[in-house]
Every structure is written in structure tokens, then in C-alpha cells.
Amino acid sequence: MSFIKSLRKIPLGARIGLFIILLNITAALLAPVVSPYGETDIVADVWLQPSAHHWLGTDQLGRDIYTRMLYGARNTIFIALVTTMLSFLTGSIFGFLGATVGGWVDQLLSRIVDILMAIPMLIFALMVLAIAGTSIPVTIVVIALLDCTRVYRLARAVAMDIVVMEFVEAARLRGEGIWWLIRREILPNSMAPLIAEFGMRFCFVFLFIADLSFLGLGIQPPTADWGGMVRENAGAITFGILTPLWPAAAIAFLTVGVNLVVDWYLDLTSGLRDYS
């Protein structure tokens, strides 16, 4: 009963966002169980309309779109989540380190970040992936490296306001080390903005991976990926077939769902709105 009451306090927009996120996570986890065919199985003619046998139709090779959507959720969401976690781990550590140590360490890290941010992200990613290859590990590392610069800026800005607090000064006077300060003092007091930013960065990384796949430098076929599915079936629009709209709609819905939850979390932690 208490769980149901707490759910009722959540605004409608956030509940819709949570439902969309949970639906996508469930689809990603249960893809091998609930999908009627294999990820790469050719089961019918090309670009068939939705029917009882193929709920969303078939793609340009005759593969079941519903099956590809389920496996695409697993691949796209997993890669975006791992990439976002890696970028946050890297950006947060260096951001907190620069703010805590200060001096030449802060200046060096900030200038490196400025150089990376001065290069257009899409162009830099396309250049590196064209040289290093388009494997999934390379894609994750390249996007995480580029995205961690934004996380560094936020983590450093938040930490700069915390390191001047009295409790941090008291910890310094006690002789606590840098990593103790980061772990015990700065990180707990930075969680709210970092969690909100994590949701926003996940959306950005998720869309960026879809963009790379659409351009042919992201997740490579025959692995199912929503961005790649849009590219592969783009020609269907010419014939009035709506096949590429299914993965495009999935990308849009998940992005909207995450943003709805992030907006609710920001309102909740900022104290600007009372849901009690």
C-alpha cells in the first residue's frame, strides 16, 4: 500500500516516462525469449506490411521488424548505457580531482578538455572511427572520451562550490587525503546534479550512437540497431512503406521518456515543487 501511495505522488509525466523506460528495459532483457524469430533470420519477402505473422512487417532483406526491434533495444540501450557510465566515471574523477587539487593540475586538465571540446564532436568521432574501425569497443571508447569532457565541466563546477565549504576545510585540517575528500565529502554532495546530468547524457549518447549507425559508422550489420534500421530501410519511404518509422519512433519515445523522468528528478531535488 505504501508503494502504491508513493507512486500516486509521482506526477503523470514522470509516470509515463518511467513506463517507457521500463518497457524498453523489459524488451531489451527478454528479447531472446519473446521474439518470434532469430535476430538475423530471413523469414519472408521484403518490406511486407504488418500482419498477424509479422506484427511490424519485414525489412529490406525479409527479416521480421518486431524481432529486430527487440534485439535493437538490447544492443542500442546496452551500448549507450555502458558508454554513458564510462564517460561519467572518467569525467567525474578528473573533474573532482581538478577542483580539489587546483593549481597546475586543474589548469592542465581544463586546457585538455577545452581542446577536445573545440573539435566538433561528430566530425572527430567520424574521423577516429574511420581510422580505428567501427567495432563496438572502439565506438564505446571514442564516444565516452568525447562525452566525458561535458561531464568534467559539470563535475568541476559543482566540486568548486563544495571544496570551499567549512566541512571540507575541516577535513583538510584533520589531514584527510585527496581521494578521501572526493569519496566522502565531494561525491555525496554532488549526486543530485550528476544523476540528473546522467539522464541527459544518456539521451545524448543514445541519439549520437543512432546517428553514427545511420551514417554507417556505428553498430554494424547484421547486428540489430535502431539507427541502422532507419538507414537500411530508408528507401521504403519512397514506396509509401512505413518500415523505417518504427525504429525512429522507438528512439524518440525512449528519449522523451528519459527526459520526463529527469525533469521530475530535477524538480524533486531542487525543492521548487512540492509533491507531498
Q: How would you sum up this structure in a few lines?
A:
The protein is mostly helical and 276 residues long.
Describe what this molecule looks like in 3D.
There is one protein chain. The protein has twelve helices and no strands. The longest helix is centred in the first third of the chain and has 37 residues, at 65-101. The protein has helices at 2-9, 12-29, 31-34, 65-101, 103-118, 121-132, 136-162, 166-173, 178-186, 191-215, 226-232, 245-270. The protein has 276 residues and is mostly helical. The chain has one domain: Orthogonal Bundle (MetI-like fold). The two termini are 16 Å apart. Helix 7 packs antiparallel against helix 10.
Helix-strand layout with pairing:
Layout: H1 2-9, H2 12-29, H3 31-34, H4 65-101, H5 103-118, H6 121-132, H7 136-162, H8 166-173, H9 178-186, H10 191-215, H11 226-232, H12 245-270
Estimated radius of gyration: 22 Å
Query: How much helical structure, as a percent, in the residues?
Result: over 70%
Q: Give the name of the CATH superfamily.
A: MetI-like
CATH C-level name = Mainly Alpha
Give a quick set of tags describing it.
disordered C terminus, MetI-like fold
